[in-house]
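Board notes (copied after class):
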Amino acid sequence: MSKQDIIQQGVFFSDKENVHEPMKFFLNTWDAVMYNHHEDLIREGGLMKFFPEKLYGAF
């Protein structure tokens, strides 16, 4: 999954340029932390690795 795919799925706050400080700083920090978190999860096998019961339809 590319960075653009992750962004399109809503990890990032897309309208930061219209936000004033200090909230803009918070949103930039949050986006960086959440992007890295999601990238790490994907690299480790995604959510199916952590919740395999969903893979087999046991909802």
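Comment from the instructor: The chain has a mean pLDDT of 78. The first helix runs from residue 3 to 8.
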